[in-house]
Each structure stands twice: as C-alpha cells, then as structure tokens.
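Please go through the sequence line and token line underneath and see whether the fold suits the sequence. See right below:
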Amino acid sequence: MLAAVVGEAAPMLINSGLYEVSFEGQPLIVPSVGGITPNVRVGDSAFAFMADHIEPGVTIRHPDDRQNTALNTLACIGNEAVVVTGDAKGEHGRVTGKHGGVEHVMVDFPADVMKRMVVGDKIQVWSCGLGMRLLDAPHVKAFNADPDLFHKMGVEVHGGRVHVRVARKIPAVVMGSGLGRATVVRGDYDIQTFDDPIAAEYGLRDLMLGDIVAIVDADNSFGRIYRGGAISVGVVVHGRSFVAGHGPGVTTLLTSAKGEIDVTVDRDANLAKILRLR
C-alpha cells in the first residue's frame, strides 16, 4: 500500500540542562538530534563530528504526537520524500533512518537542496513497506524497509534462507539503548563502542552512517533481545554518543530467531551507494 504521511523539518535540540555527561564523567555541550545538516549525510563516518546522536540530512517530525507516531511507524527506509512547502518545494529525497526516544525520521537530500530549506518546511513521505512479508523465507521477518530497498541491496532468498551483504558484523553483547521496546516498527537501538578491545576487534569505530550491519545473536522479532543463534540486519541511522549505554543507532530491516539469514561482508553495503545518494 502507498500512503502519504507528513512531517516538518525539525529544529536541532540541545539537552535541557545544556550539559551531557559522558561515560567517563566529562561534562559536554555539543550539537545533538534534529535540524537540517547539509554536511552530515549517509556515507559519512558515524564518528566524524563532535556531536551526540547526530542525525544525517533533514530530521522530520509531526507536531501532533499521534500523527508523529504514524509517521515514524509508516515511513520506511528508502521511501521517497518530497518537499511540499518553502524554497525547496518539489525537491525529492529518501528516508534513511528512524530514531527512537525523540521519535524522528531522517531524510537525505542533496546539500544544495538542504541549504534552501528552513526549519518548519513540510516534507511528505510516500510510505510503503509496513507489514511486508518474505513469503519464500517464513522464518525471516522484515521491518522498516521500502520493498524496492531489498532489490537494490541485492537481497536473495534460497531454500528459505535470506542472503544479504553487510558492511560489518556486530556482536549483540554491545547493543544498548533501545532495548526493552515491544516492537521494532519504529526507532532504533544503539551500538556501544566504549570497550577498546571489542571496538577494535569488530571495527566499530569505523562505522559509517548508512552502513548495513548484521547483529549476531540478536532477535528483533517482537522487540530487541539477545538470543543465541539469532541474527538481525539493520542500518546505522545516527552518529556516535558520549553517553553511557548509547552509540551509533541501528534501525532493524530483517531478523530471524532461527538464524536463517546469511551475510557476506562488503564495505560498500551502505545506503549512500545502494540508493545512489552521493
């Protein structure tokens, strides 16, 4: 089903107490969620900016909470978005992420388009993907993805198993903020990168915004849990954090409690290339 949902370019937010306290006890005042960020886009390092939870491209939100819940649930990675008000009216972009807690949707546009936009501009997303099923892989669940995204990612199904290219494999043991929600149809959960040995072993600090990643021993079927042998695939949607329990966020695309997803590591598995955004 194709359906229109609308949000507004949201303002950048700063912690209400100004200071964030890092995992080492250091007080910080840095840019954070929201805003229009023409120099922060998918394909950039998740660690390139002195910021906390930075969101690439244009952050959108609906001022009415109920309608914002619908926007965050219905919008899917890869959906087409269109600016419908302001100097950039008529320009097209793509949904690249959903951020839980603040309940934001992120949309990528070319930098020159973003520079013509202002906070409050309305952006319409042509939603498609909610409720999608993989009929030939009954033990693999799909979430938050435009149906065409899987074709562009080169996802294949053989003998009930899904085969997908990912930029990195992530151990479930490092997953933090975002655990405990009853569903993964919106939002994300964070990759903690504070432990130096495990960060080095898995290349966690080389993560890029837009990377497709596999989380090993993670079942996202009905919320996010550790389950040995399970596997989930998602996309890195926001940047690093200095706050304990937080880090680059991952929005779920695929999950299998039975481990019926096979992954091949390919550093080009990033939305910037998959959706030809850069």
